[in-house]
Structures are given as C-alpha cells and as structure tokens.
C-alpha cells in the first residue's frame, strides 16, 4: 500500500503516471525533493494489458 506523503520530507506526493487499465496511480513523485517516491505495480493489470497486445498483434496478421 502506498502512502500520501514523502518519506524524506513528508510533503504530499503527486501522481506522475496512471495505469492504462484501472486508472489508479502507478508512480508517485515528490516535487519538493525531486525524487520518484513510489512505484506501484498492478500485476493483474499487466496481464490484461499483455493480453490486449497479443490479441491486437493476432488481428493484424
């Protein structure tokens, strides 16, 4: 689970990237420190995205 504040300076973290599948944050960034604070993986979303890529590549053949 991710926190809403930076571990170094305790500033509020901002969403830098959003998951294409579930639209939840995948990367949080601290603008005060300039550090990428957390990467959040969504294993189920990765599988769904991979399946979409496979299906699209098969359609193009």
Topology readout:
Elements: E1 14-18, E2 25-30, E3 35-39, H1 43-60
Antiparallel strand pairs: 1-2, 2-3
Structural commentary:
This protein is α+β, with helices and mostly antiparallel strands. About 30% of the residues lie in helices and about 25% in strands. It is built from one helix and three strands. It has one helix at about 45-60; strands at about 15-20, 25-30, 35-40. The chain has a three-stranded antiparallel beta sheet with strand order 1-2-3, with no helix packed on it.
Principal-axis shape equals elongated
Q: What percentage of amino acids are in beta strands? A: 25-35%
The portion of residues assigned to helices is 25-40%
Helices and strands: which structural class?
A: alpha+beta
Largest sheet, in brief, is: 3 strands, antiparallel
Order of helices and strands: EEEH
- Number of helix segments? 1
Cα separation of the termini: 41 Å
Count of beta strands: 3
Q: Identify low-pLDDT runs.
A: none
Radius of gyration, rounded? 15 Å
Indicate the mean pLDDT.
Answer: 86
Tell me the strand order in the biggest sheet: 1-2-3
Q: What are the key terms here?
A:
single chain; 61 residues; alpha+beta; three-stranded antiparallel beta sheet; 1 helix; 3 strands; 30% helix; 26% strand; elongated
Summarize the entry for a quick read.
By secondary structure, the chain is of the alpha+beta class.
């Amino acid at each position: 689970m991710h926190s809403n504040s930076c571990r170094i300076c305790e500033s509020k973290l901002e969403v830098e990237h959003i998951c294409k599948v579930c639209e939840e944050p995948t990367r949080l960034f601290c603008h005060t420190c300039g550090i990428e604070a957390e990467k959040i993986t969504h294993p189920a979303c990765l599988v769904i995205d991979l399946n979409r890529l496979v299906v699209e590549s098969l359609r193009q053949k």
